[in-house]
Design goal:
Helix content: 25-40%
Number of strands: 4
Shape: globular
Radius of gyration: 12 Å
Number of helices: 3
C-alpha cells in the first residue's frame, strides 16, 4: 500500500471523499478552482491546499501525478 492510500484510510469518510475528488482532478489537471501554488525551490512540484491537508504533485505530459499528501505540519519536512 502506498503512502497516499494509507493517508486516506486515516481520514474520516467525508474528508477522504473530498481528497479523492481532488486527486481525480489533479490526474486530469482540472485544478483551476483549487488553492494552487508552485513550490519555491522545487523545479516541477505544485501544492494544493485543502484545509489542513496539503497535496504535492507534479505536472507531466498533460496530467498530474500526486507525489505526497500529509497534514500541513509534516508535508514540507518530507521534501
Amino acid at each position: 500500500m502506498d503512502q497516499i492510500e494509507k493517508f486516506l484510510k486515516k481520514l474520516d469518510k467525508k474528508t477522504a471523499l473530498k481528497i479523492a475528488q481532488i486527486l481525480t482532478d489533479i490526474a486530469t489537471l482540472h485544478i483551476g478552482s483549487y488553492d494552487l501554488e508552485k513550490l519555491a525551490g522545487q523545479k516541477d512540484l505544485w501544492r494544493i491546499r485543502s484545509g489542513k491537508i496539503r497535496i504535492i504533485f507534479s505536472k507531466k505530459d498533460e496530467r498530474g501525478i500526486p507525489v505526497y499528501i500529509e497534514f500541513r505540519g509534516k508535508v514540507y519536512k518530507k521534501l
